[in-house]
Amino acid sequence: MKNNNLRDKDNPFDIGNDWWNNISIKISDEKWLIYSEAYKRSAEILMEYVNQNRIEENFLIYPVLFLCRHYIELKLKQIFKEGYQYLHRKEKIPTNHKIEDLFKSVKRIVTEVFSDINCTDEYLRELVIMEQFIQKLVEYDPNSISFRYPTQKNGSPTLANLDYLNLTKIRKTMKRIINTLESICEEISLLKDQKNEYINL
User: Fold this and answer.
1) What parts of the chain have a pLDDT lower than 70?
2) pTM for the whole thing?
3) Cα-Cα-Cα-Cα dihedral sign, residues 80, 81, 86, 91
4) How far apart are CA 101 and CA 129, in angstroms?
5) Rounded CA gap, 169 and 179, in Å?
6) 38-66 pLDDT, tens per residue?
7) Helical (H) or strand (E) element with 189
8) 57 to each of 15, 145, 167, 178, how far by Cα in Å?
9) DSSP type of residue 20
């Protein structure tokens, strides 16, 4: 098959003459923020597409749920990293995809970081909603495989116990989770800045 637009020596990962399609990978040093934002926006765009057009939902639901799960994982790891930095403790960010264990660590961090500013209870109430959603995610997708592959590594089918779901409910829950996670990240960042200003006085 001949393609006149792509030569054998062309590098698909190089820039092209159509400058509007050239993409900057290194747009920020805040990698955790950029990655989580990318997966969040991708999920939102797909969910909005399905909601507006009412088509392709049976196909797009798999990437949507993977994107949602991965966004949550990335944001929890960002809070893990920045929370322990604020507390002046060295803890390695978990490298696995066990978001239930990660969530438990983040919950402890939130309780400790915000214990002195009278907003712990508010965040903990929202974290209850998040925990319920994460528990369901882990039930159907314990290792971040089920929304990417039709079978587990041992050959057994993924999502064997899930027949139907409602995208509107997923969307509403994710919106609430996003608001909570981003609010926590912003608050920790503000506290870190305030602490650094105090130290530098």
Assistant:
1) 1-9, 116, 118-119, 200-201
2) 0.90
3) positive
4) 16
5) 16
6) 999 999 999 999 999 999 999 999 999 99
7) helix 167-199
8) 33, 20, 9, 22
9) G
